[in-house]
Design a protein that fits this description.
Helix content: 55-70%
Distance between the termini: 34 Å
Structural class: mainly alpha
Oligomer: single chain
CATH topology of the domain at 241-315 and 440-609: Neurolysin, domain 3
Strand order of the largest sheet: 3-5-4
Number of helices: 25
Shape: globular
Number of strands: 5
CATH superfamily of the domain at 241-315 and 440-609: Oligoendopeptidase f, C-terminal domain
Order of helices and strands: HHHHHHHHEEHHHHHHHHEEEHHHHHHHHH
CATH architecture of the domain at 241-315 and 440-609: Orthogonal Bundle
Bound molecules: zinc ion
Amino acid sequence: MISPKTLDRNKIAQQYKWDFTHIYDNWEAWKSDFNKIKDKLKKLEEMKGQLKTGAESLLAAFVLMDEIEKVLYKVYAYPALQKSTDNRDNDVLAKMQEVSMFLAQFSTATAWISPEIMEIPEEECMEWVEETTALQIYKFNLQKTYRQKAHILSEDKERLLSYFANPTSAASNTYSMLTTADVKFPEIELKNGEKVKLTHGEYSNILNTSKERVDRKKAAENFYPLFADIKNTLAAIYKGICDKDVAFAKSRDFESSLHAKLNSNNIPLEVYTNLVKTVGENTKGLQKYHQLRAKYLNLENDYHAYDSRVSLMESNKKYDFDEAKGLVKESVNLLGTDYLKKYETALENGWIDVFENEGKSSGAYSMGVYGVHPFVLMNYNGTQDHVFTLAHEMGHSLHTMLSEENQPFNLHEYTIFVAEVASTFNERLLLDLMLKKSTDPQEKIALLQQSIENILGTFFTQTMFADFEWQAHQKIENDEPLTADTLTEICEKLDEKYYGKDVFTRDKPNIFWTRIPHFYRSPFYVYQYATSFAASASLYQQVITGEEKGDYQPLEKYLNLLKSGGNNYPVEQLKKAGADLTKEETILAVIRQLDEQVDELEYLLMKNR
Ligand SMILES: [Zn+2]
């Protein structure tokens, strides 16, 4: 089935819906588990002050915490997943709120643990670990705790800082209100007479899909002032955010705001600098792609940003869900029989909620439920894009399964840094399979374009953004002014570095700094999209070349990465698998991938003119 003819969930066959009985038979069973962990949390609180007394108490606290968290996965997922399938169900919403309240209690009730561990001298604590076998699985957790110690202040200073958490989030909240709640979106009339309100979603929709150039131009021209007209206010807000980052970094004795942000996952600074530098020096493929587009669209010398996303060739092919399952399954063949067997289980047993229905959350995700299995949410509509979404989310699910199976509970959870390697690796497997299978040039062109756009969006653009954030923060750190003009200047220079001088016709300055929510919500976050993508491309390259030569070591290393959960710092995990993000080589894997795909696209486009 491509998609059912109904949005009524009750009318969709059970085989396409989640089976919640895998978690609990009913709400009574949920309630009973919930009560059990509430009791256990009380016991954990009673342990306060005892951790210092010896290895046994420390171990007991860790074990109890694991017991609570293990069950918490299920207690959380049971209402959360049901809510996703119908956000209007008030009973479920109420239960979800109960869980949220418990989560807040849980974090308050466990806040004493790390500070108390830090009171134990590190050397002594490590001796306990050596002497107590059962404590050894917690060694990495302890090391992480002690690593933080250098940047944790005395209790009174920590308290003082905590008073400023809310006031310093004002800038970020203001941005969000100004660009969502209080924004007056313009209305435009399209060529066909239809009137549309130019929301963020509608704007990208027109730029991505509208074949009418006048409509794209109109959308761009009407959307631009939304930000340009308030650029001074936005600059003041953004400066507030950079100021805050710099102030907190200084308070905690970090070398810079970037050092502070990288610290939580122990990411070396070179990972960031290597990415920004290497990508910045290798933008030829990106420029060639846009030149190719300009030529193909007959827009040479008049190619605008609003022409840069619309598809070159539409593939109208729809994929039945069974066909999609067949394709994704075939694509992971190369990862071995154990992987494939797990993959089949995940596809066939009510682990995927496939189709859209009224009230269901949009988009797609994979949520691991410890001790049960991962749950995948889709809103499958049969497009090529959604077949890739299925491959992506399944990649996350298998990563979850392998980590859960091979790691103790406290180490099974992986970071986002590694997570997107598993998902994009599988997208690449699918792309190569579909390119190989396809006999339809239109489908092939659509596939290549989708893949290239993906590289541009996840890798190049995010790296350019990362470069921007770094430069802006450095201005504050160097006591230089940060105004709308200086911010625009950074963007303009980056624009030229990435896209060259004459690929695009620009009649207005590039002010991307005004409209990227990530800059305002979570600074220094976006680089991770690019590094994950690079690690994935590099590992993919190694696995494929290995296979061709009959060398299965790269594959084994890759599978070991998927099995490693969170048993080390992400950069170390990736390095062990073969992708060293401090090395230029790793980043260049994506650059080469882009170059190859652009060349192939060029060939196909010329052939099909
Ligand atoms: Zn993902």
